[in-house]
Amino acid sequence: MEKGVCALIAHDRPPVVEMRGITVTFPGVVANDNVSIEVYPGEILALLGENGAGKTTLMNVLYGLYRPDQGEIRVGGKPVTISDPKDAIKLGIGMVHQHFMLIPPFSVAENIVLGTEPVGAGGVLDLGRAFRDVTDLSAKYGLTVDPAARVENISVGMQQRVEILKVLYRGAEVLILDEPTAVLTPQEVDELAAIMRNLASQGESIIFITHKLKEVMAISDRVAVLRRGKVVGTVPTRETTPEDLARMMVGRDVVLSIDKGPARAGDVVLRVEDIQVKSARGLPAVRGVSFEVRAGEIVGVAGIEGNGQSELVEALTGLRKVASGRITVVGREITNRPPREVIGKGVGHIPEDRQRRGLILSFSIAENLILERYHQPPFARGINLDFREVRAYARKVISEFDVRTPGENLRVGSLSGGNQQKVVVARELSLEPRLLIASQPTRGLDVGAIEFVHRRLVAQRDRGKAILLVSLELDEIMSLADRILVLYEGRIVGSMKAEEATEAEIGFLMAGGRQRQDTRAGGERDARVGSRREGAMGAAHPATT
Amino acid sequence: MPESGPGARAPWARRTLLQREEARELLIPVLAVVLALLLGAVLVLIGGKSPVAAYSALLRGAFGGTGNMAETLINITPLIFTGLSVAFSFRCGLFNIGAEGQLIMGQVVSAWAGFALAGLPAVVHMPLALLAGVAAGAIWGAVPGYLKARLGVHEVINTIMMNYIALYLSHYLVIGPLKAPGPLPVTPTIAPAARLWRFLPPTRLHLGVILAVAAVWLVYCLLFRTTIGYEIRAVGQSQEAARYGGISVRRNIVLAMVISGGLAGAAGAVQVLGLQYKFLDIFSFTGYGFDGIAVALLGRNHPLGVLVAACLFGTLARGAILMQSIARIPKEIIGIVQATIVLVVAADEIIRRFIMPRRKAAAAGQASATGAEGGADHGA
Lengths: 545, 380
Known about the structure:
The structure holds two protein chains of two kinds. Chain A is α/β, with parallel strands linked by helices. In chain A, 33% of the residues lie in helices and 25% in strands. Chain A has 19 helices and 24 strands. By secondary structure, chain B is mainly alpha-helical. In chain B, helix 3 (65-91) packs antiparallel against helix 10 (249-276). The interface between A and B is large, with 73 and 53 residues.
């Protein structure tokens, strides 16, 4: 593996950036506690950790967005003070944020030179030189872009390249990438990995923030693991395993692979027949979708964000009207029925946005746990709510689902994200639903909480319940689902058994590729990908989770 | 995946007193009152008078002797009802500026029931006249509630318009169909059987004050001990989550406005049945409905808070009159004190709702927020 060689060479030279004993405190919280890391020339360093471990804080210190309370930063061996991003840029440090900071109607070249525009005679913007500079730069690093294209018309992956080029244009030798893969399709992730390696081979140093073990293993030379604001270890990537990294991240053993037997699919629970759903803006979002979910199986819906997943889930749960088509649960019509009736037919729903839809943040945990059942006995008698029953029930559920809280009367909003999600999952599973619709059930959760949610979903399946899993995380779909549907522009463009599916194939379909089939109708049958493009990452490292 | 922002982390970490939600809830209103009274004292000083004399006159005016105490309580009574009215609608996320109009309708209709149904025994007549006023207020609240729920028309606009409709409708009624013989724009006097019991003669203190305290307790139970209150609070906190939980948002918006209007109607009914015994057109708003907004704000939309805030505002208003006549200090000083209280509490509200979340987001935003979460909105 050539990256190992890279790393060896790198260590013969002094580090480009050293952070020594960095401590950052926010009111009542120590975000970074005596953290030390260093990055060498031409090295890819992964900064791995759970949510709130302090990864982004540390990088914001390096980029001049936060001032550390203690500690020292050395660049090229010399101690420096970085009080704002301008200082950082002068020192050759550039950051690509998770949210791109581009101006959509501007061209690629205009965006790249923005702030450091080449100026011609009389203070006029020299666009010709900007184009040439950008073309040279993109040739040098193998980052192909069209300098004349408008940013609003290019893909997310392309926009990310523009962001990287923007940083390089300012002369950065150290690139900080904050969760760079979060918004990318699997193919784009592979391309990004190739770009990062290419940059490193040209002498650039890269620090990339992530929580995905697979990417750490595939891309990085070295990995620094943060837990609760402290560095718990820095190891060369090739001397570690995903299991070791997970243990360092969480502080205990984590089961990465999901232990699940084959599905024993029973009767059809959910039947969706040719439904069309419009988005909030009145545009067609779901365009004629039909599928079934049987008892005892998990059907996964894969797709890139904004391809109709949200509208599909809302239609199935009564939160959005369907324009046409039919939805039934165990043969009973739920098309365009109000949410309470849908819940009554045995449909549980873990919504994609727990803070806006799944929970009432200012309500207590106990009050949230009865959101769908407050009007039923034993909680309600007439119009009276029996809070003794409510609290007793809450205590039971809290202990059963291991929600970490000092008590059931605490505001849900003051729980951590993982515990908030546990409250939602606990509530929905306690409804004993025939059909559970789980939409992005692990979004924003850390490894430990993800493991918890996944185990509960599989357990639910094994109890003979039907589960529809909608997720943007392809890994999640691949490891949990028994059958996979791929949604693209509101249509199901692929349908396959999980054990026959490959990441490359699904990624291809997610990006709008066509599934080649023996017959047009045989959606369930053996499917082949039109183009056999093996992902660089997939090839180098088989799926690790 | 987000790196939680500094503000969002460590749920039970040590925080300063002002950052603790619960402490803030109490501290800010108390702070507001103290600050406002200090400012009032400074203003009195500037005017060349003694603040001690001013405030002692105010206290004597409010609490000196049974008579003054009774008048103070009479002042407080409608404020409790209108404060509860506004607070109740707030709990459902609605801003009922129409308590004033609902109160006027309560006055007119209960006055009508008081004289038109003469002959009924007191046990029937008094509650009936009271309920008539409540019902009138409820209907006046229901209209903007329905328009909001059905058509999405903002309740602030509609309740303000309903205030004027109530005002001019009451003008018309007391110079037209409900007018008593004579030159004044006034309804006939209500039958003795419809009057609220005055239990502390010779003062005018009447049953209304007890009804108001009972209403505090009732509203508290309704909000926090029943499924109705659960639904209303859920809708008020998150319509999205309420709908998801199977709660009808529309129904609860209408219901909250009906109850809110009913409480304001009760304020009007109590004034007529306990105090005035008729509806006299004063050609302007009474002010109780608008003061109810301040009372609800200071009372943090909690029934008990409303009770305390109404007592404070009622006392200040009553005391100011005596302060003016004894200490010769203009009662407008107290108007300034009240306004200052409202300003401080409202400023805190603005800081908590708009400035703090934004700062939190700025700190977290640079760093965190998932790509997924950020992109969630433009999915179509």
